[in-house]
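Bug #77: duplicate submission created two jobs. Keeping one. Sequence:
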Amino acid sequence: MTPGSEVNLKSTLSYSYIQVTSEDKLVYLLVDVMPVAQSSLGHVPLNLSLVLDKSGSMYAQEKLEYVKKAVIYVIDQLRSDDISSIVAFADRARVVVPSQQIFDKGGVKNTVQRIDNVSVGGGTHMFKGIVAACDEVMKNYSPNRKNHVILLSDGLTVAESKCLKKCREEAAKGISFSTLGVGNDFNQKLMMDIADTTGGKSYYIDVPSDIPNIFAQELKGVQSVVVQNPTLHLKLSRNVQVKRAYKVKPLISDLGAPQVLNQVYSVKMSDLQKDEPQSILYELILPSRQAGSYRIAQSSLEYDVIMKGEKGKQIAQDIVIAYTSDYSLTGMVDSYVMNLVDLVSVFRQQTRALELAQIGEHAKATQLLKTAATTLLDRGQKDLATTFLEEAKNIEQGVNTSVAGTKKLEYGTRKLTQMLDDAFLPPI
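Kept job's structure:
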């Protein structure tokens, strides 16, 4: 760690030594970013909007009652300098609690208890809820706050593309979105995309009674932000290429085709929360070289510390690898990095399997799911492996994948890196 910095930056290669050959080599690079626990930093005040689906389906299984409990918990936990608003939507959107510092918590909680009486229709038009929430956040927007929206829905919405476009536009202004999908009817791709592209988190809540716990988890996270606007840069040495990159902590996501400008590959990260690392896994292609040690890249993090009024702070670390003809050295691998590689492979396999199933390539889809299940069983993930095998059986028999099973696959694989044994956790 750089003295006086608020962040630890750690770079780990899958191999410290690679064989001298005439061929290019594939090497994995893991970059861990972790805020340093510093109580002196204080906290970043919130500018939070809660967007609640109040369509007809929310009255089933007491979903709305659990939402009320969750929102009341949030109100109780708000700090005196936090700002909050509440929006309800169905066919229409209504601002239930306008953007404000909540001094009369009892009065607001009474309003939440009466949210059943708020008339917004019976369908699901999430775009209207998003627009209303963003309008409320912008009333008290400040770069010195965590400007954030928590969006909950249990159903499919109209105007899906407009929802995602609007969230991306607001993210460019500094607003992040976390999404909570309840039950099996919501569009998980849309909810994941909104969260991934705006710096938030996405949750799948299959049991309505879990709603308060998930709200509590999300609130704890946004209340513990210590570093904002982090961007991780990877400056590549000559002839070094990034083949692919994945975010692996706190959740797995595919960062897509690398866009490298002037030998620099940059990833906009989510605001850093206390005690929660963020990690990027890169697939690097290294050129053939003579024996010796070479700097292949430099990782650097640019970030703001709002509590100190500091912007554009930077820390950097050189990444060095040795080329050798000694086979005893080239056989040594970093077990933690390679375990992450395996888990990312499971994520890729389920993603590809579901794509293949959609176009009728049932045999290939089935094989991918079975292969992924074997990896999961080897790592003790029996429940998730069972879901993989059940969906493989459905596809094999010519039956569509189940709605619930698909969600368990997609959300379950994204969380795999949270489940690594503590023995593998690298020191940071």
